Amino acid sequence: MLTLHIGFGRIEFRLHSSRNLKAKRALLLPLKARLATLFNVACAEVSHLDQPNLGVLGFSCVSNSGVQARRILDQIVDYLESSRSQVEIIDHQLEVISF
Q: Which of 10, 13, 14, 40 has the smallest number of CB atoms closer than 10 Å to its CB?
């Protein structure tokens, strides 16, 4: 029997340079695309859609290894914390489930 591991998470963040929703979208669109490309994850803004300085990104990945799924999630958080993006992480939650 094959085991499927699904990693998913949410990152709540603050954008210091965003003054309006248009500026927020201009920052988040390339960031979501970069996360999807670098880490092979699905990524979407899932909360605080109407607040220009706050947001929540949700993301998920599928792997044949729970360890690998968790590594991908941790790498996303590390990337956002260490990158020169204008995102300040307020909180994050990560989880891996297995089927």
A: 40
